[in-house]
Amino acid sequence: MPDTLKPCTMITDFVTGKEIPNIGAEENRQVVEHFLVQEKGFLKGDIAIDVDIELTVAGEAYKSQVDLVVSIDVRSVRFMAVKCAAGSLGSREREIVAAARLLDEKYQIPFSVVSDGKTAIVLDTVNGKKVGEGMDAIPSKEEALEKLKSIELQTFPEKRLEREKLIFRSYDSLNVNVQRNV
Description:
- A hairpin with a 4-residue loop joins strand 6 and strand 7 (120-124).
- The relative contact order is 0.17.
- The chain starts with 9 loop residues before the first strand and ends in a 10-residue tail after the last helix.
- The strands form two sheets. It has a six-stranded mixed sheet with strand order 3-4-5-6-7-8, with helices on both faces. A two-stranded antiparallel sheet has the order 1-2.
- It is of the alpha+beta class.
- The chain has one domain: tt1808, chain A, CATH 3.90.1570.
- The chain has helices spanning 26-38, 93-102, 141-150, 161-172, and strands at 10-12, 19-21, 47-57, 60-72, 77-84, 111-115, 120-124, 130-133.
């Protein structure tokens, strides 16, 4: 059976201004991008899109991307990793927590968010527990700056690293309708 790609429409990404395929949860991601800038006070420059994550899992290279990573310019700290989903948010919580734990070798990104553009689940990355639900639970830039004053950035424990990589790869490999696979 030949490999043929289904045609898709293109839309303009709110943060980057680039034309991108409108597939999977892309419309949801656009809503989240608008929300972060217009409602939560982040600058477009604070938000990185499709951030590369490269791991070695069980001796094999694995490459993927994290939908959104929000940084705080004061300390140049990655503050929040966001997974934009088209379906059940609960089924994506563990994936974004694993990504936030693994994305930076120096520290775990303090907060993980999964959103469909209508609602969100906000998690503390270090302990994996839910800290809020709903779009209003996503920290604003002002709240993020305040939280960073009292947060001690922590590395992920070496003894749990391989297991976390396996968890991320297992969940992430289920993402078939994404731009990197077009």
